[in-house]
Specification:
The structure holds two protein chains of two kinds. Chain A is mostly helical. Chain A has one domain: MetI-like (MetI-like fold, Orthogonal Bundle), CATH 1.10.3720.10. Chain A contains 15 helices and two strands. Chain A has a two-stranded antiparallel ribbon. In chain A, α5 packs antiparallel against α12 and α6 packs antiparallel against α9. The longest helix of chain A is centred in the last third of the chain and has 38 residues. Chain A starts with a helix and ends with a helix. Chain B is mainly alpha-helical. Chain B has one domain: MetI-like (MetI-like fold, Orthogonal Bundle). Chain B is 76% helix and 0% strand. Chain B contains eleven helices and no strands. In chain B, α1 crosses α11. Classes of the chains: A mainly alpha, B mainly alpha. At the A-B interface, α1, α2, α3, α5 and α6 of A face α1, α3, α4, α5 and α6 of B.
Amino acid sequence: MSSINQTVPSSVSAFRDRIASMPLVWKLLLVGVPFAFILVLFLVSIGIILVMSFWRSQQFQIIVDWNLGNYLNLLTANSYQTLLGRSLGMALLVTAVSLLVAYPIAYYISRGLDEQQLPILLLFAAPFFVGTMLRESAHQAIVGPSGLANQFFEVLGIGSSSLFGYGLFQVFLGEVYLWFPFMLLSIYLSLELVDQTLEEAAVDAGAGPWTTFREVTLPLSMPGITIGCVLVFVSSFVSHVPSRFVGGPSGSLIGNTLKDLFGESGAWPLGSALGVFIILIALLFVGLLGAYTMRTVPTLIGGEHE
Amino acid sequence: MIEHLTRNYRSHKLLLVAMLLFMYVPIGVLVLVSFNADPYLLFPYEFTLGNYVEVFDGAYNDELANSLRIGFGSGFISMVIGAAAAWGVTRYRFRFRNAAVVVFVLPLVVPTLITGIGSSLLHAQITNISGSVNLAMVTQSVRGSAFAFLIMMAQLNQYPVELDDVAAAYGASLRQRFFEVTLPIIWGALLGAFLIATIISFNDLNLTFFTIGSSSSIPTLTFNQMRYGLDASLFALSAVIAIVSVALVLSLSLLIQVSGVLNTDGQ
């Protein structure tokens, strides 16, 4: 947050002094109230998942009886491991493909466009705001053995294709469709933050476009890549809508199990343990990626100053 | 623009167009089939306004009213909370300030399925509040506040603090400063934060699903219907919602430009 300090000119120190002498009640109101709101409704509600994962349920009754049974259950049952593995693979693939597709587009928007930057970005962002359900209902109508896509290709004489049938491939497309905007916007923002004089300096020093990109632009945009990957990975890992509606009989993901455990089955403690498990895997991914970024970025910036 | 790095970007452009098609073809198909008597059939295509007539006759009035209440209510709460938090964080120095920023943004990173489940546990186990439209509205505000917070942070980081100072030096009261200096500068961001939080909350499934109780919103209704296929009229309503949402988000670029002009005028 040091950038905020730098943007405030020193001439406002008098103003700041006055702010500092302002009644504590203002600070409490402006930061304390929003913080309390998030604390209770968000942090506590996540915390209770952790607490309940150590309880157990019996015939739709939740019993406070501290135990590790739910975790043992998750670790030993094959069905959960299959689903976890499949979801993990799916999330990694969705993240990788989103990254590979989003980077050139974000680069082009940032470096190749001027006035159209904002409209194009908003064009990519807008579908995200349309929501999961609405977009997946369109997706569901299009695919399927006798869906709109196959009807269309039948009439054209190409014939229907199993690619448009329900299955993991369509789940994959659905996940990319849902979460791609996260990746694009994150990478774009970090490309905008890259100091372009560094790129010019590299070119002046005789580096070709590819070398400049690989040695300067790419490492400096790592924060955006990391944030984009985290958002896409976590979102697609816990996603449950595409797998439910275009996944077919063997396209379920761990998100479906998680959601169902909180539905009619009444097995909330087991579901909570699964939730904790999922959060831990997501955190592990965030940690590994974050550590990698931390290692790459400062060395490069440090090197520039030498 | 660096001369040496300028390329014709042909493959980049191609990828961009392909990806835009990928994002918008489903929405286009949705609109197209919403005018068909049977939206799940491409042929025969029998153009009809019947699906829309059903919607306007009030087939989804309850769910629509709930969704609007969740959307606008949460939009307003999010705007207030997000703006207050962003103002506090950019203006005041205090310990744990960076931690506070992380906490305010965290609801964006945690998937809504997890947050939704957590909320349902919270209210079932601790608060004993049973699910309702209002509860869904408040729950959506947690995530909406995070979006509003980010938008307000972006604006307030560029806010010319000197103007407040000058106004204060000329004896403007706190209230005058807010209405005559601050508000004219930040109204664009406030409106943007409100709109974004409203659209997000209106269309979100997970947080609403776990907190709305026995009522329904448009997304939860769609979720429950999709197992057996949507009613033709729901395609019509979805098409309207999709178009309105996209148009509102795109209009933000206008809003940002207009409020940007006002900003430079102010300076």
